[in-house]
Amino acid sequence: LWKYPELYPPEINNQEQILKNLGILLDWMIENKFFIPEIDLFTGEIWHSTFGLRILDLIYEKIQEGFNCGSFIVPSNCSFLNDKRAWGEIQRRIDRFQKIGCPLCFSISVDGAIVEKKARPKNNGFENLDKFYDNMFIFAKHNNFRFHPMIAACDIEDWIDNYQWWEQMCQKYD
Description:
The protein is 48% helix and 13% strand. It contains six helices and four strands, in the order H-E-H-E-H-E-H-H-E-H. Strands 1-2-3-4 form a four-stranded parallel sheet. Helix 1 packs parallel to helix 2 and helix 2 (50-64) runs parallel beside helix 3 (84-99).
């Protein structure tokens, strides 16, 4: 959307319109008795924001009204783990979705500490990457979430060390 803004014109690119359209789509799926086994929520990193939480709350309400789905997968860098309030808000929603039998799962998309510290030191807004990664593993273990590490060709000289870091962290957090 940043590269090609004409794909989503500004007059409809606002939070209220997006929420309204999502509600219309989910209502239509309820009326037509759709079952969707898995839905991936691809977004920017909105989950720390009121808007992201409103989207999750709307989906939760629609499930209670009859929207039939198996689970939701959210690919995310989990930047919300840097903010205890935002982390708590996300965890409360994960727990609520779990209780109604429609898991909300985060597929954690990060590079790994070795390449992250070298390639993007402090450019990502994370003041303490070690603490972030510890929180990330605690969050993943608590919720039984998994990772899908990303790595770039420009980091090739660090791939082995980065892989070993992943191995050590997975062992550390079981």
